[in-house]
Specification:
By secondary structure, this protein is α+β, with helices and mostly antiparallel strands. It is built from 4 helices and 3 strands. The protein has a 3-stranded antiparallel beta sheet with strand order 1-3-2. Helix 1 crosses helix 4 and helix 2 packs across helix 3.
């Protein structure tokens, strides 16, 4: 099974989870996802997901000037985003538990 196919279904959840603890700009979110173990995630996928989550009202954004290059657009989780993270997290845990049972793994 290809990781890229699995990522399509859970990238929203992963991005929301990364932003739960600390705001981040596009490349920072990408880096944190990769450090967490999602090395296969693509740049364009993360940037597109951030824009889509923002347009859906799950993130807020603000711009911070940078001395090292262009200004950076930071994203932060707002209350609707936290609610979606909680709901999606529960859905994921239920799904993962079901898959673990099917595969004969301890939940």
């Amino acid at each position: 099974m290809e990781i890229s196919q699995l990522l399509k279904g859970v990238l929203d959840l992963a991005v929301l989870a990364v932003l739960r603890g600390e705001d981040g700009y596009g490349y920072d979110v990408l880096r944190r996802l990769r450090v967490a173990g999602l090395q296969e995630v693509g740049d364009a996928s993360v940037y597109g997901t951030l824009r889509r989550l923002y347009k859906a009202g799950l993130l807020t954004s603000y711009v911070v000037p940078s001395e090292e290059g262009p200004h950076r657009k930071y994203y932060s989780l707002n209350e609707p985003g936290r609610q979606r993270l909680d709901e999606s997290g529960q859905t994921w845990r239920t799904f993962a538990s079901t898959m673990n049972s099917l595969l004969g793994e301890a939940a």
